[in-house]
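FW: tagging you since you asked about this chain on Friday. Here's the raw sequence from the shared folder, copied in full. Didn't touch anything.
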Amino acid sequence: MYSSTQLPRALYTAEQGRALDVRAASVMRIEAFTLMERAGAVAFDLMTDRWPHLRRIIVIAGPGNNGGDAYVLARLARRNGIEVRLYALSDPSKLRGPAQEAHRIYLAEEGQVRACTDELPEADLIVDGLLGTGLDRPVEGAALNMIRLMARHPAPVFALDVPSGLAADTGTVLGEAVHADCTITFIGMKRGLLTASGPEFCGELFFSDLGVPARAYEGEAAAAQRLDLADLAALTPRARDSHKGRNGHVLIVGGDHNMGGAVLMAGQAALRCGAGLVTLATRASHRGMLLEQRPELMVVSVVDEEGLAPLVDRAQVIALGPGLGRESWGEDLYEAALFADLPTVLDADALNLLAVAPRRRDDWILTPHPKEAARLLACDTAAVQADRYAAVRALQEEYGGVVVLKGAGTLIAGPDAATPISVCPYGNPGMGSAGMGDVLTGVIAALLAQFGDLGAAARLGVLAHAVAGDRAAASGGERGLIASDLMPELRALVNP
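HL: got it, structure written out here
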């Protein structure tokens, strides 16, 4: 059996995945080849379900167990009347273990193996069983040539376990990678499939545990955990005698000249996600516009840190950064807000100011995108994206609290090293537009004000924000999606 809707919560590294394969065979008291047979059979079932009218397929088999899965699938395809052209990356006589046995049976049933080529024939589908999870350096040589041939071919690509060229641990492309339309992974969900380039190169993602029992996973701590829509059930209904004073007061500090929209987006999101009271501390020039747009907000003109002090006294949570700027006004309010020693959500220019003068706290949530994360880590954006898991962990260790590293497959680390990194598999490219980060800041601040748990506020806030983006895109498309489109969806999601 396989599924794209019931993906596992636990995510593993490639090394852990190989250890799980061995443990599964031991616990189930079966040979590794039997697991390979199951993997090939499940992949074949998915292939024929998704592409039911296949007549000709190309199968690319590598030198490892990933290639062994491909040999099993190719054999089953031939048995079912599908024409198969199988290309081997290297000399099949050098195969070892279960892959060698899969190759032997394929040949015994009169399957043919072709050497690598410079041109692939016409086909309805290409099956990528080239490299698997063992890749740790840029692809080169014959493997690179095959990846390029697959890229030029018009047929869709079905990847086994991991698209070839994609790093299973980080989701980065190692030089070049197969751009699959569909990927099925086995036994342990690889953490790189859900972040960085993973979602783009995997296409539609499926998982099968191959019937491995739960006890085979015992003792193997997950390297990360996947957020799921069901997590929002933690947002239980309010008590019937609830009132605004019990639901938290969020103070949003920002909106320098010409940036009033940022605090408006954050403030609206905080209201829609249940904060009892929301105050905006901003420039006087924005006050009329903000009250006209959203009269439920309390808008206070603040000139300096002295004007901020009485607002801080009434708040439970501060959201610091939307439209703050880096001029003297923003710097003064930044220092005053942090001096208040309240739980704080930092975004945008608050993060840029933090990068200039680093400090550590345990009661804040940082929400950088990759460029802001690079400033905080004194590196370049490419280094952050090369290993997002390492980057978010380094940020949390350096700055404390909880860190949300935004982007495709947003990651959440903290509040301590013992808490597994969380990965959000939701969200879409349409959310790469102005104001989306401000909305996320407001969502997280509202949940923090209501429930007081930094980790839960970050995880549930990221989840609700991403799913709201998906639902908003579903009704009108990704291109042209704007931040305010998320507001009605957010309200529904925080009332599961």
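FW: The longest helix spans residues 454-476.
HL: agreed, and The CA atoms of residues 95 and 329 lie 67 Å apart.
FW: great, closing this out.
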